[in-house]
Design brief:
Elements: H1 2-7, H2 11-60, H3 74-90, H4 94-105, H5 108-115, H6 121-134, H7 140-149, H8 153-164, H9 170-182, H10 188-204, H11 209-218, H12 226-239, H13 245-254, H14 259-271, H15 278-282, H16 287-297, H17 305-310, H18 317-330, H19 332-342, H20 347-361
Length: 362
């Protein structure tokens, strides 16, 4: 074919046509891109205007639905949803009531509830995300109903995230934890966020003690995965959940074969200023638990100096170094003992002590 073209008397005509075709194609591509750019800019401008209009109407008008054009296109629904979610997140009382009512008046909640049953999974997931942003208790039963019939695991994870913002008592938390345990474990961050949302929602409603009741019930609940329990305790640490303090020691004692749960319990209690688990954790068989305890031991190490000093000869390099740094931070008698260890015949203890003293001096 190439030989035929090169030997043809019309070869240069073919080349000219090809160049012209490429030129027309490139010009068309540029025009197409400019058109889409202008379309996106118009859409964003319209969306921004609708959001401002909705927010202003909610704050200033008695009946905001009378001032707002009903949404028709998907971007209009999205704009109103963002504005209403922002108002619900920022205001309480009459303004929040008007915002929740506007969802029904404009048909926004019905629109996204229909989309939550759409045949395409990502549209269902997006609808769930938007409904979750409203944080309305009225959506809880709807979420549970959708969860039971939802075939996509990805959408189920989003439903549980939405439910985590709507919990109000220990029975609901336990139900959510058991539903979460029926799904393949996703990530620690996801599960921690779930329980962080729960604790935040309970604190906002003055019912933080409900989380403590849930922890007691979940302690021996076989339906709740140990990984979920671990992440729950980690969320206690992140959210400073004081109401779960009394049961955290029981988690440490009941899960001797689960060092990650014990680590989470030690960290959560230490965050609250309770160091009751530090002594047993320093003697734990798992080096990770000992290492975690050492991170907080300098805050309560007056009576623990012998145990910490022994850890300078631990089999784990990380534990030896952490023990030395703990003694250096504690100062006083602990630092004097560390100086003695720097001249020790045990080369590992001496190296860790010398490094910690150097870091302390720096």
């Amino acid at each position: 074919m190439l030989e035929f073209l090169t030997q043809s008397p019309h070869f240069y005509d073919y080349v000219t046509l090809g160049v012209l075709f490429l030129g027309v194609f490139n010009v068309g591509e540029i025009l197409f891109l400019l058109y889409n750019k202008a379309k996106v800019e118009r859409s964003e401008l319209k969306r921004g205007n609708l959001k401002r209009l909705a927010a202003t109407a909610l704050i200033t008008a008695t009946d905001p639905a009378e001032l707002l054009p009903p949404p028709v296109a998907e971007d209009e629904f999205a704009a109103y949803s963002e504005a209403i979610a922002s108002v619900l997140d920022s205001f309480e009382g009459e303004v929040a009531v008007k915002a929740a009512k506007l969802l029904t008046d404009l048909g926004i909640d019905g629109h996204y509830r229909r989309l939550a049953r759409h045949r395409t999974w990502y549209k269902r997931g997006n609808a769930i995300d938007i409904l979750s942003s409203f944080r309305l208790r009225a959506n809880r039963e709807f979420f549970l109903a959708v969860f039971r019939s939802e075939p996509s695991t990805d959408v189920k994870y989003r439903i549980l995230y939405g439910l985590s913002r709507l919990t109000r008592d220990h029975a609901e938390i336990r139900e959510l934890a058991e539903l979460l345990s029926t799904l393949p474990y996703l990530t620690a961050k996801y599960t921690e966020d779930i329980f962080f949302n729960i604790i935040s929602a309970l604190k906002a409603n003055g019912r933080e003690e409900e989380f403590g009741l849930f922890l007691k019930e979940a302690l021996d609940d076989k339906k709740v995965l140990n990984l979920v329990k671990r992440d729950c305790l980690t969320a206690c640490h992140a959210a400073s959940c004081e109401k779960g303090r009394s049961v955290l020691k029981k988690y440490y004692e009941a899960h001797e074969e689960e060092p990650e749960i014990q680590i989470a319990a030690v960290r959560a209690l230490a965050k609250m200023g309770d160091f009751v688990l530090i002594p047993p954790a320093l003697r734990h068989a798992d080096w990770r638990v000992r290492l975690t305890a050492l991170k907080y031991a300098d805050l309560c190490c007056t009576d623990l100096l012998p145990e910490i000093r022994c850890l300078l000869r631990d089999n784990s390099y990380h534990v030896r170094l952490a023990a030395a740094m703990t003694m250096a931070r504690a100062g006083g008698a602990a630092r004097a003992a560390l100086t003695e260890e720097a001249a020790s015949q045990d080369k590992f203890a001496a190296a860790a002590a010398a490094y910690a003293l150097t870091q302390g001096a720096a």
